[in-house]
Amino acid sequence: MTNHIILRLVYQAYLFGNGLVMTILSVNSFNSFKSDWVEYNLILKNWQQPLIYDIRATNQSCDQPNEILLSYYNFPGTYAGCQCDIFTYTLRKGACTQRALNNGCSTLNSYPNINMTNFPINNNTYYKLCGTIDPTDNKNTFYSNPQRKPCNSLQLQCGTKDDYFICTNQPKCPIFDISPTNNYTDGIVDLPDGEKFYYTRSLEGQMPMVEWKIGEGSGICINNAIPSITSGRSDYALMRNLKRDCARDTRFTRLANTSEAPFYHVNQMDLLPQLINGFQIDDKYQWGIYKRGYILWKLECRDNTFQSFLNTRQNLDTIYSIQEGQTIIASVFFLVISIIMSFMVVYTICGGNWCCIKGKGTAEANRILQCEVFIKIIIQLSYAIIIIISFALVRSEYNYLDSLISKNCTDEQTTDILRNIRDNLQNEIYVNNIILLVLFIFSLFVDFGAVYFAYKNKKFSICGGGTHKEEVQVQPNQIEMNHQQERVYQNYYAEQQLQNPDDPFMKVVEQ
C-alpha cells in the first residue's frame, strides 16, 4: 500500500472522528440544557396555576360548578414487547419476530395510559380531591399578577408576611394549607370513612396551595415531569415513561399515603400483573398525595426583575432551538460525511466502481472527494454560523442569570435550578461551541489540503491488486498488438491478390 493511499485513508478516518466529536458535543450540550429548560418552564407553570378556594373529597366525580380534579397519577401505559425465557429471561421493546416466536418467545401487547384518580383509605374505601376555582378570574395568578403591597381597594389581601401574600378578587382567601392533623379552623374536608382534612386560608411563611401530585416513594422529583420511584426499585422495562429515583422537591409536602396494592385496587388496575406479564404490584412500596404552593418570589424582586425573569423565556427558548438545530446538523454530518461518503471513497480506493459517477480509479475517487469536501464545508459552515449567532445570546443570558442569582429573589431549590442553567450555559454550551468552532477552522485547512493533494497526485496504486493501474498499462500494449495484427493481415491479402488477381473473394476483401 503506497503512502498516497495511506494518506487518503487517514483523511477518511479524520472525517469520521470529526463527525463523531461534533455529534457527541452537540448531543451532550442539548441534553444538558434540555433538562434545565424543562425545569425553568415548570417554575412558570407553577405560577400559572389557579388559586383553590374550596376543597371537597368524593368517591364520585368532580362535577360541582367550577370544580377541577386536584390530584391524580397518570399511568403512562406500556409498549408492546417480546418476552423470551429460553436460556435467560429477556424482555425487549417491539413485537417478536417470527423466528423468535418459533423459538418459544411470546409477544406482549401494549397497554394504554390511564389516569388513576382514586386514592384509598383502605381496600374498599377511597376518595378523590376536587378543588373550586374562579374561572372568571383567570388572570389572578402569581405569574400574571405578582402584586406589591398593599392590594388595591377592590382586592382582598391574603397572607401576613411581605414575601408570602397574594391579592384576590374573591370575597375569601384561597387555601394556604391542608392537613389531616393540624387543627386549622377555616374549613373541613370530610372523607368517606369519617376521617377529616383541615385547611387554613392564612399561614405565615407560606404561599397558597396550587399544585397537587400523586407519586411513589419519598416525594416528588424536582423535575416533576418525571414520575418518582422508590429508591432501589426498578420500573417495568416496557413503561412508556419510566419512573426514576431522582432528587426530591422538598417544597412538596405529603398530605396522605397508602401502600401500593390498595392504590391499584381502588383504581380497578389490580389485575395488571395478569394483563402485563412481568409487571409487579408490591405492598412494601408507598404512594402519597403531595401538595405545593406558589414558588416564592420575594417582594423586593416583584418589579421589573420579575418581568425580566418571565421575558427570559424567549431567550432560553431560542437557545433551546439552536441547540436542537446543532444536534440535527451534527447528526446529518456524521451520517452523510463520516459514514456514507467516507465509505464511497474507501470503496473506490480499494478498486470498486460506482456506475453513477464518471471515471474510474483516481478520477472517480477525486470526484467523490471533491463532492465530499464541498458538502462537508457547506454543512459545517451552516453549523459555524449558528454557533457564532448563539455566542452573544448565551453570554448575555449567563450574565443575566448570574446577576439574578446574586439578588437572592427566590427559595434555595429554585436558586439551584437557576444556578444549574447558568453553569451549563458556560461550561457546556459556551465551551463546547468554542471547541466546535476551532474544529471547524482547523478542518478547513485540512479539507483544502486534501483537495490540493488529490489534484497534485492523480496517479496512485490501488489497494487490492492495483486493478485500475494495470488497466492503464495494458491498454497501450493492446493497441500496439492490434496495429501489428492489422499490418500482417494487409500484407497477407496483398500477396494473395497478386497471386490470384481474378479471385472474386479477394476483390470483396479488398473492397
Please provide a written account of the structure.
The chain is of the alpha+beta class and 511 residues long. Helices cover 46% and strands 16% of the residues. A hairpin with a 2-residue loop joins strand 10 and strand 11. The chain is flat.
List keywords for this structure.
16% strand, disordered C terminus, 511 residues, flat, 4-stranded antiparallel sheet, 9 helices, 3-stranded antiparallel sheet, alpha+beta
Tell me the Rg in angstroms: 37 Å
Largest sheet: 4 strands, antiparallel
Strand content: 15-25%
Number of helices: 9
The beta-strand count equals 17
The dominant shape is flat
Summarize the helix and strand pattern as letters.
Answer: HEEEEEHEEEEEEEEEEEHHEHHHHH
**Helix residue percentage:** 40-55%
Q: What would the average pLDDT be, to the nearest integer?
A: 83
